[in-house]
Amino acid sequence: MRRNILSSWDEYYCPKCGAILNDQDGFDPDLESWICKECGMHLFDESVYSGELYEDVLWYCDECGALLNKQSGFSDYYSSWTCEECGHYNPIDEDEIRKSDPDEDNDHWVADTIVDTLAEIAYRYDAYKNMEGQSEYQYSKRQSCQNKSLINKIKYKQKRRKRRRLFIILCIITILFAGSLVESYKYRIPVGFSLESCLDKDYSDVEDEFKNAGFTNIKVTPEKELEYEETDQINKVKSVKVGLARKFDSFDEYPYFRQVVITYKDMKEIKVPVSSREAKKMKYNDLVFEVEEAGFKDIETKIEYDVVVGFLAKAGDVESMTIDGDEKYTSTDKYPVNAKVVITYHASVEDKKK
After folding, report:
1. pLDDT on residue 99
2. Which terminal residue of the chain, N or C, has fewer Cβ atoms less than 10 Å from its own Cβ?
3. What CA–CA distance (Å, rounded) separates 111 from 170?
4. Number of Cβ within a 10 Å radius of residue 164
């Protein structure tokens, strides 16, 4: 049942035909279920289990008429259910389902016809004969076997559903992949040159060659691995990749939008041993040692002969250190191994005369 929250009164209506249930004889919002007398739709309270194997079917105890759907743990996957109210054994299968008539009252558990009544009596008699002579242990064991069989059936159905979903996903992926191949085939263009012709060339020249060939998605990345003695290899191409292909010839064709990655060689970077502020507090010979230990090779020292008395600065104190022209840097900054390092320090005026 659905509630019309737009009304100022508590009004309930059928979601199928829109009939106002409050106007129907015998309707009570506290009922667990109700059959619309206009269209015959069976309506449930939200707290009532609506079924999985048999959706929208209410199961009532054949003995006391209790609603089994509200009992704890009930599921229509079970082949039978023992009523928690009276302990009666109730079969749960498709043969027990009867369609509801809008004109009948809410005592759905009562047989509708004499034939149904006789069939129900015969079934109860057979069930009684089958139960006769069985101990409580045997009965519970049989119930346990039935439950295990039901669980196995449920697991099998779940596995089948998973397989179907996986198959559908694989089909979708295959269709998308095939579509992308067909689409990309229409936009193929020849490279016009081989990988070997690109190696050890300047990366900017190789980039221009790909642009002239018609490729639009070009990415250039440095690989910083060169030592100080290998400065002649700076900006030389190390590898070229077109899509997933690491090798290609001049007659190979690829979509013009396929990504081209050009990797070139660059100088290795090393961390600065001290910050620009810390450098000014050091003696120049100690600073030169720290810089050399860090890996810098191109180091130049400059002298400022400005120490007369030595109150403000003493001979050998560092005035400044620049790296590639930068005057400010931290101890976490990195520079190429061939960066120019200039250390300026103070010296006595007398030393200049000498």
Report:
1. 52
2. C
3. 51
4. 10
